[in-house]
Design brief:
Strand order of the largest sheet: 4-3-6-7
Helix content: 10-25%
Shape: globular
Largest sheet: 4 strands, antiparallel
Number of helices: 1
């Protein structure tokens, strides 16, 4: 009985799986093959943003705490990987936003800063 149900599910899923699009975590779904993403998540003292496709010469990053206060706001030159120093941020959850020079929102992701772990 289980194998019959599984077979029926697989046969029904094949047409949908053929057209599925897999996007990296943190990518805003669009059709221009934008594969930008934020890593690692959770992060420690550095947060990286991968930006394989240059859209404008400059970009803007914004990090808000859970209260909505902007804790980091920087305008940076567009590079394939932008590194953000987060060592001054306390442990918690943050809203990371990445904008192009024309203020187009490219990444909007919830990220977490983890606490230090003690290894024995």
């Amino acid at each position: 009985m289980r194998s019959t149900i599984l077979l029926v599910l697989l046969v029904c899923a094949v047409p949908f799986a053929a057209n599925a699009q897999v996007l990296p975590i943190g990518t805003i779904g669009n059709n221009n093959n934008n594969t930008s993403y934020v890593y690692p998540n959770p992060f420690d003292n550095v947060l990286n943003v991968a930006l394989p496709v240059q859209q404008t010469p400059m970009c803007r990053i914004e990090v808000k705490n859970s209260f909505g206060d902007i804790v980091i706001s920087q305008v940076l030159p567009w590079t394939p990987v932008v590194t953000v120093n987060t060592s001054n941020l306390p442990v918690g959850e943050y809203y990371f936003r990445f904008y192009s020079e024309t203020q187009a929102l490219l990444i909007n992701q919830l990220v977490s800063k983890r606490g230090r772990t003690i290894r024995r």
